[in-house]
Amino acid sequence: MWHPGAVLETGEDYREAVLSGQWWEKRRFTGCDFTGADLSGLRTRGCTFDECVFTRADLSRSRHDASAFRSCTFDRTVLVESRWTSCSLLGSSFRDSGFGGMALTECDLSLASLAKARLRKLGLSGLRLREANLTEADLTGADLRGSDLTGARLQATKLEGADLRGARLDANALVQADLKGAEVDVETAIAFAAAHGLVIR
C-alpha cells in the first residue's frame, strides 16, 4: 500500500518516543523500532510499516485507515480501544498483547500469528484470516461472520459462543477446531459433518 510522495524512513529508532495524539498521512516506515513508544491516540491514513517493531508500545485508542503493517512485531503491545479500517496486517505477529475493545473492519490478517491471543467477544467479521495461526487463541464469543479462515491453524482454538455464520473454513480447519457451542449456518454444519466422515443423505 505505497502512495506516491510518501515520506520514507528506514531503520529509524523511535524507542520510548512520545508520539501520542499525532496525525500521520502517507508516511512509509521500513525496519523502524517503536519499542516502548507512546503511540496512544495516534492516527494514520495511507501509511505503510514494513518489518517494524512495536514491542511494549502503547497503541491504545489509536485509529488507522487504509494503512499497512506488514510483517510487524506486536509483542506485549497495548491495542485496547484501537480502530483499524481497511488495513493490512499481513504476516504480522502478536504475542501477549492487549486487545480489549479493539475493532477491525475490512482488514487483512492473512499469515498473521495470533497464537494464544485473547480475542474474546471481539468484532472480527468480514476479515481475511487466510493461513493465520490461531492455535490456542481464545475466540470465545467473537463475531467472525463472513470471515475467511481458509487454511487457518485452529488447533485447540476456543470458539465457544463464536458467530461463524458465513465464515469460510476448509476441511482441515473444521477438523482441527473445537466448534462446540459456536453458531454456524447450515452450509458450515454440512461441511463439518462431511469433514468428520458423516454421510448426509
TrEMBL record:
It comes from the Bacteria. InterPro entries: 5peptide_repeat, Pentapeptide-BTB/POZ_domain. Signal peptide: none annotated. Pfam families: Pentapeptide, Pentapeptide_4. This is Uncharacterized protein YjbI, contains pentapeptide repeats. It comes from Amycolatopsis tolypomycina. The lineage of its organism: Bacteria, Bacillati, Actinomycetota, Actinomycetes, Pseudonocardiales.
